[in-house]
Amino acid sequence: MEAETSQAAAPDMLKDIIIDIRELTFSRGERIIFDGVDIAIPRGKVTAIMGPSGSGKTTLLKLIGGQLAPDRGQVLLEGSNISRMGRNELFKARERMGMLFQSGALFTDMSVFDNVAFPLRVHSDLPDAMIRDIVLMKLQAVGLRGAIHLMPAELSGGMARRVALARAIALDPDIVMYDEPFAGQDPIAMGVLVNLIKRLNQALGHSSIIVSHDIQETLSIADYIYILADGRVAAHGTPAMLRDVDSAQVRQFVQGLPDGPVPFHYPAPDFMQDLLGGEIK
Amino acid sequence: MIDRIQRLGHKTLSKVAAFGRSGLILMHALVARPQPLVMLPLLIKQIYFVGVLSLVIIVVSGLFIGMVLGLQGYTIMVDYGSEQAVGQMVALSLLRELAPVVTALLFAGRAGSALTAEIGLMKATEQLASLEMIGVDPLRRIIAPRFWAGFICLPLLSMIFAVVGIWGSSLVAVDWLGIYSGAYWSNMQQAVDFTDDVLNGVVKAVVFGFIVTWVAVYQGYDCIPTSEGISQATTRTVVYSSLAVLGADFILTALMFGDL
Ligand SMILES: Nc1ncnc2c1ncn2[C@@H]1O[C@H](COP(=O)(O)OP(=O)(O)OP(=O)(O)O)[C@@H](O)[C@H]1O
Ligand SMILES: [Mg+2]
User: Fold this and answer.
1) Closest chain A residue to B121, measured at CA
2) Distance between CA atoms of B73 and A138, rounded to whole angstroms?
């Protein structure tokens, strides 16, 4: 398959790998979400995970964060298996990861300031003044320094996600996982976020994993891209490689066409049969 | 038929598994290196939410139940000319049974359901997951202070309930119905034994506090993270903890007073 050739063409990037996912199999009940997936996340780069809705992108991030355990296969963080870690080891590993949840997941009983300061207070002994400065810097970076005293309930969805982003990068983690960072952002904020992610990646040298549907933004920012479909890696490669990959599945996805081999629908019986059958099973 | 047996077996197994899980959750939450600097402020906040905010309902209920007891006791006992013993009857029934049981039931409805709903909503909005990703154990940060708060508050609330109840019955029996107050109080003083009555009541309240908050935090932590799942979990908290309290009350009463 073309995926093999693309890997051969980008060997230098994939030499220094921070997270290595091997033969990953994971199912929810009857539904197999991953069926033997291999993904390598290069260190210090922006890696994008793309795929249709419901293809398991959020699930993949949770597997990397150790919140779910694979049925088979391994998720290796610098060679150590995350699902084998004990509780303390796992929490140590998570200190090095920042995660932006799809829903933002701000702590609703804390102000914006306390939310962003939370990881700092937990993991460092910095004096209050220093914490305040760091929080201000992070909020400035996402354009929400003015919202510092608001409560999460007073933020719009897009603002909440940007605050969550500030919280995810508060500790300057080695690995930052962004679940849909662009969803719900206006074009200006989107541009700022794209730049911010790029800049953070370059300035701090951390490895970023971006899950996104926004093809243009993602292609512009990612160093390496994995496309998931049907529980497998449909294709991977640099943006340039994926643009001229000769696979209908990938073309459909990269060009955003509604019809093609990538299913828009959750697996279901034939539509006509369903309509005429008159029975929900 | 086989199908039904299978389902029954499955249901039993999942109940047993849930019970085991709830025990593990509690153990993970409570067995930890103490971090007083972090935990104390969280605990105080939860004691406020769980305990202080329950005070009104406890005091009002205690007052009314005491007044009703005083009135009923008087009307029954006056036929035998022993209305002076009202104080003794009220104090014993409150200290031994009514204060711990009624407080626990009210507490399950007022604070237990709120705990479940709060924890469940935190789960549904991924706040628990993001705590985990920040490297903070939600069992220790969220579950433990809530559990301790309930465990500490319920016995205190139960004592307040008993005191207010006794005072309420004295309002009715002494001030309104005119029982001689010296007789009312001295009868009570003679009848009530510290270990048998007061301490046993407190022991009951401690056990109930454990049961109610355990059920509440487990239901919240284990709920299906949707609005429907949270509402079911909240209902289960009230139903399960009330039934468990009543069942445990019978067992405890049998142990404490069974061999009279
Ligand atoms: N808690 C859960 N229990 C059972 N099934 C789940 C659960 N969470 C997700 N799933 C299923 O797992 C599959 C993958 O979900 P996931 O959230 O990873 O998708 P996604 O790729 O992030 O989609 P989106 O782009 O819409 O966020 C979906 O088919 C979903 O039905
Ligand atoms: Mg998702």
Assistant:
1) A108
2) 68
